Amino acid sequence: MTATRYGYLGPEGTFTQMALLSWAASHGGEQVPFGSVDSALDALRRGEIDAAMVPIENSVEGGVSATLDALASGDPLVVIGEVNVPITFVLAARTRMPLADITAVGTHSHAWAQVRGYMDANLPSATYVPTLSTAAAAAGLAGDVEQGYDAAVCAPVAAANHGLEVLAEDIGDRLGAVTRFVLVARPGALPERTGADKTTVMLFQRDDRAGGLLELLEQFAVRGINMTRLESRPTKSTLGSYCFSIDFEGHVLDERVGEALMGLKRVCAEVRFLGSYPREDGAQVQVAPLTGDEDFSTARTWLHSLRRP
Question: Distances in Å between the alpha carbon of 226 and those of 105, 122, 237, 280?
Fold first, then answer.
């Protein structure tokens, strides 16, 4: 797909924009910032943009709840690509100042979770002020309106964009942290099967009972399908009611994946298909013995022969 208008979680200088810049370098298109994941995906559903880049998973904090929940409801959307971005944080302020003078720090909740160790060690008395994004924290600090914090945790590019002084660099608690972003579009033509693909689904159980989750997972296991992410999310209907967001290896055009999706459709109250798309790392899917396309096709041909005497 070649989109002409891409939305992303803004403002300028977010890690999400970095992911989009990586994608757009080979695809082109206009970039439109949005204040939240929900607003970007709502604009996509309304047809105001052609695709949206949003964060979905972090190597430290796990799934991004806002994205998982937004994809689980509303008009269907599908993932058509992914981008992995290494995450590096800086502590920035309007002017150079001693760390001891900082009373409050603004940043996004996922960023704060990744710098807790640094904050406990260096600014133990500083108050955390949540912002819509790391770039929004930098923009708010540089603006004319008082935001309630005197330092921000953000990407180096956001500090540079807003003329902030960097007080400390590379303050993340985990070296090598990575956030995975996905490009989301309205349903249409599937990305081509490459042999190095992922599929994303959201599964809703018929009822809460012993063995219910096992029944879902068996649909993957018996067909040799490896899951790369499994998370539960509240359905928001009643306390204790959960659905499951799953990434797994393979493409909907693979026979084993198609068979698994049919099995899930049979046992689930709802299967929300969220797309099959190429892995960014290009790692080829390792197909287990007797689970290749030919194996399923041979078995299906045999069954048809039994049904047509």
Answer: 41, 42, 30, 17
Cα gap 170→90, rounded to integer Å: 6
Q: What are phi and psi of 189, to 5 degrees?
A: -65, 135
Written as six digits, the tokens of 222 are 């018996």
Distance between CA 266 and CA 12 in Å, rounded?
44
User: What pTM was estimated for this model as a whole?
Assistant: 0.86
Tokens encoding 289: 């013995």
Residue at 185: amino acid letter: A
Residues in the chain: 309
Structure tokens given for 98 = 């001693």
Question: What is the dihedral angle through the alpha carbons of 266, 267, 273, 277, rounded to the nearest 10 degrees?
Answer: -90
Give the number of other Cβ atoms within 10 Å of residue 177's Cβ: 17
At 204-242, the pLDDT tens digits run 998 888 888 999 999 999 999 999 999 999 988 888 788
